[in-house]
Amino acid sequence: xxxxxxxxxxxxxxxxxxxxxxxxxxxxxxxxxxxxxxxxxxxxxxxxxxxxxxxxxxxxxxxxxxxxxxxxxxxxxxxxxxxxxxxxxxxxxxxxxxxxxxxxxxxxxxxxxxxxxxxxxxxxxxxxxxxxxxxxxxxxxxxxxxxxxxxxxxxxxxxxxxxxxxxxxxxxxxxxxxxxxxxxxxxxxxxxxxxxxxxxxxxxxxxxxxxxxxxxxxxxxxxxxxxxxxxxxxxxxxxxxxxxxxxxxxxxxxxxxxxxxxxxxxxxxxxxxxxxxxxxxxxxxxxxxxxxxxxxxxxxxxxxxxxxxxxxxxxxxxxxxxxxxxxxxxxxxxxxxxxxxxxxxxxxxxxxxxxxxxxxxxxxxxxxxxxxxxxxxxxxxxxxxxxxxxxxxxxxxxxxxxxxxxxxxxxxxxxxxxxxxx
Length: 422
Hints:
This protein has 422 residues and is α+β, with helices and mostly antiparallel strands.
């Protein structure tokens, strides 16, 4: 058996395989014997029909069976010998029985090959660690109180900034009613930015039961492209005004929202969390710069099959985010083709990041052990209040163990780069 490997674009290799006649003949003889023993041909006892009649009646079936047995067998031998890092499912093409044997092609995609640039000389911007102030902690306390607050009817009959209102509304663009701007009971907080700014501002000062035509202009970058930059009139009627009654900041409240015994302990917890978040923000700020520079300095092709898979991942995440906001592609004026086109660069950058970090980890002899993976799962279990042993078993059984290990290796490599670069 002979084969020849030909390199093509996008990490694609075509392996042209030629199986010699002698090997084909051996398989053919075995397959033919099986057909002869089991063939039923009128006028002859089972297994006694002449060879010529068996060939005449079953030639195609015999050839197909020879191919089915021979190609997988030789394919496995070729792939084992070449030891390629195949990243997508291989394809068999152009399987051809010939006078001097059988030929076929194996098409595979492999990991890209590239040399690392001088990444240790990168320079990145620094960012000053934001100090957590008492005002920051108090804002977070107010947010917690608002979250636990209850709406009550306002004693005022006039809508004000920060009030919660219910309106009936009907929107008109170019004199035509728009169904998406029509509601009998639209609830919103004035000033929260959940609706277009001109509408929220137009509600301020309205009296309970008052009707008003509010002129609005949609921003040029408005998410619903059909309305971007256009003017509209919204006929609004103010049906309800409510205020948020927030709980008092007491030790009992602190225990309810955090399990801490006192307000002072809750403040300390919030301050610590905010300090950690500030530190994480700086880490992410540096990591983003490092990855951007690494991608810019390394140019290499990617397996198209992996790119397509990652585009699917990016698209699915984007659509899920839209759904959580009650939106879809049609409502924002985008087609699936548009989204896939816009997602390609992100998908390619994601894959390049993985390949570059793996190569740096190899060069710097950075490793992640099974113990590291167990430690991370136990940390997650503490945060989520799950059983660590069960999580470890599930990770191994469901195949997420290796994915987590790869993620930890990427994170560890990034940390080493942050410590090394200036």
